[in-house]
């Protein structure tokens, strides 16, 4: 599993490494050697290389790389963005590069540009003109650790930012590189595994093998009861589709028994829509009332619940969510279930340990009293902070969905595509996560694996029919194939 760190964590890891006896200038040398190795593997010796250096240690990496590449026979020049380096190690490598008569230039004219300007040091908008020159150079651009102008923690670029063809990350990939727009700006992300002090990493970018380990195998004697009983509390007049999609996601994810609690007058249409799931008719009209929902819920044996898809904004929805939370089994709270608790999220501190919230950015903004831009500009930190404060697993949906678990682990999801940005996609996800939770998976694994499977199903559907016009039903149909690919990749 690819391990990710924030800029603060990276600095702490470096300090821990130095405290154990490593010299910072030696670490810089290893980083520069990694840059040179990257160039050696991809470009021949007649390649013209311009190393653009800043005044900090990122610039120091650049000066050292220029020296090593020059010694290796490359045609190298240095573009010094500022007057002089400001850290001791950067000054050392600046002086050594000067002593070798490596040309210092004031314009970029090269086949390859190495961006060693700011690295993880940026905090706020960047307006350096050199960024425009790099982007307009037509050269292959290799960013050192992080493209200049990109926030290493959030992935945001509030001002100008370098568009790299590749980014060489030292030791660990920085969390922001796997969020947007950084993921687009970084290009190919390559890890240079430098020797840093051992540390406890809490943020991950999983692959198929990691997810396969999370999803339990099926025994030969499984039956519908052992595969998990899921109760979905969803739907209202005009929104029975949300309940249907959630049920389809759950069934395709392998839930043994799926029951959908629905208002009585909508039961017939749900029975027509759903063949494999059971419907539980609640004695109410158009939207669920508390007494009717309680009666229906209590009539169903459930290992986990999904509550919220298409429920509407009825006055009793909060009471229904509260009632389900108190049952002390896993509960996936989505859509209108999230909206219902916006005014009283402290309920999660008391009853939310087994809950999984799945907000999209708009729902997260309402939940936390923020604007959407604020949510999107700090997705990872926001999800982690919320999970810690409310002792609840949060799945913050969007490109690079963030799953923050109660134990402190965070997952950045690699699967999915823009074609999934359509109403109903999240309903399918809620069903998948609910099915996994009903099978006995922890909230952390059910959420992280559910998000991965959902995105992979979307990727499969996109390959079959294209991203434009892909609908949630297409995604739901591909969930089983996604799980098959993860669990049995050779077939």
State the main characteristics.
491 residues; alpha/beta; Rossmann fold; UDP-N-acetylmuramoyl-L-alanine:D-glutamate ligase; seven-stranded parallel sheet; 20 helices; 16% strand; elongated
Write up what this structure looks like.
By secondary structure, the chain is α/β, with parallel strands linked by helices. The chain folds into 2 domains: 2-200, Rossmann fold (3-Layer(aba) Sandwich), CATH 3.40.50; 208-487, Ribokinase (UDP-N-acetylmuramoyl-L-alanine:D-glutamate ligase), CATH 3.40.1190.20. It is built from 20 helices and 19 strands. It has helices spanning 7-19, 24-42, 57-71, 88-99, 129-135, 182-185, 208-214, 240-252, 267-273, 290-298, 317-325, 336-341, 347-351, 361-368, 372-377, 379-390, 425-438, 443-465, 472-477, 479-487, and strands spanning 2-5, 48-53, 75-80, 104-105, 112-116, 140-144, 166-170, 173-174, 188-192, 203-205, 229-233, 257-263, 278-282, 304-307, 331-333, 355-357, 393-396, 402-404, 410-412. The protein has a 12-stranded mixed β-sheet, sandwiched between helices. A hairpin with a 5-residue loop joins strand 17 (393-396) and strand 18 (402-404). The longest helix is centred in the last third of the chain and has 23 residues, at 443-465. It starts with a strand and ends with a helix. The mean pLDDT is 96.
């Amino acid at each position: 599993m690819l391990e990710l760190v924030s800029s603060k964590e990276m600095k702490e890891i470096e300090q821990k490494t130095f405290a154990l006896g490593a010299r910072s200038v030696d670490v810089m040398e290893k980083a520069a050697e990694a840059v040179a190795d990257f160039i050696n593997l991809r470009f021949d010796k007649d390649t013209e290389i311009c190393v653009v250096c800043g005044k900090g240690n990122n610039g120091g990496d650049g000066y050292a790389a220029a020296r090593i590449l020059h010694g290796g026979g490359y045609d190298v020049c240095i573009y010094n963005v500022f007057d002089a380096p400001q850290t001791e190690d950067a000054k050392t490598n600046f002086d050594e590069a000067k002593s070798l008569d490596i040309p210092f230039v004031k314009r970029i004219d090269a086949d390859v540009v190495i961006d060693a300007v700011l690295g993880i040091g940026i905090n706020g908008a960047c307006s350096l003109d050199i960024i425009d020159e790099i982007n307009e150079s037509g050269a292959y651009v290799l960013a050192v650790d992080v493209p200049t102008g990109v926030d290493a923690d959030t992935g945001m670029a509030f001002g100008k930012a370098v568009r790299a063809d590749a980014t060489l990350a030292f030791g660990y990939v920085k969390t922001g590189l796997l969020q947007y727009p950084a993921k687009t700006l970084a290009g190919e992300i390559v890890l240079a595994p430098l020797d840093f002090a051992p540390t406890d990493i809490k943020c991950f970018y999983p692959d198929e093998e990691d997810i396969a380990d999370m999803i339990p195998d099926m025994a030969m004697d499984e039956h519908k009861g052992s595969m998990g009983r899921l109760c979905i509390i969803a739907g209202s007049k005009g929104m029975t589709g949300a309940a249907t999609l959630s049920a389809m996601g759950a069934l395709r994810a392998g839930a043994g028994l799926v029951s959908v609690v629905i208002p009585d007058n909508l039961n017939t249409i749900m029975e027509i829509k759903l063949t494999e799931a059971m419907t539980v008719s609640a004695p109410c009209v158009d939207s669920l009332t508390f007494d009717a929902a309680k009666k229906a819920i209590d009539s169903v044996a459930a290992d986990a619940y999904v509550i919220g898809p298409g429920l509407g904004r009825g006055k009793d929805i909060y009471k229904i969510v509260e009632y389900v939370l108190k049952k002390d089994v896993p509960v996936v709270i989505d859509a209108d279930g999230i909206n219902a608790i916006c005014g009283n999220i402290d309920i999660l501190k008391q009853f939310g340990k087994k809950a999984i919230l799945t907000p999209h950015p708009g729902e997260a903004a309402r939940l936390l009293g923020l604007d959407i831009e604020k949510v999107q500009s700090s997705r990872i930190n926001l999800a982690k902070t919320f999970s810690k404060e409310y002792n609840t697993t949060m799945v913050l949906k969007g490109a690079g969905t963030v799953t923050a678990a109660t134990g402190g682990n965070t997952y950045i999801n690699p699967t999915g595509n823009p074609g999934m940005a359509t109403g109903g996609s999240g309903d399918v996800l809620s069903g998948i996560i609910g099915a996994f939770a009903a099978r006995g998976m922890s909230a952390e694994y059910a959420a992280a694996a559910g998000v991965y499977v959902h995105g992979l199903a979307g990727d499969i559907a996109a390959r079959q029919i294209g991203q434009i016009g892909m609908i949630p039903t297409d995604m739901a149909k591909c969930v089983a194939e996604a799980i098959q690919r993860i669990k049995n990749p050779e077939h």
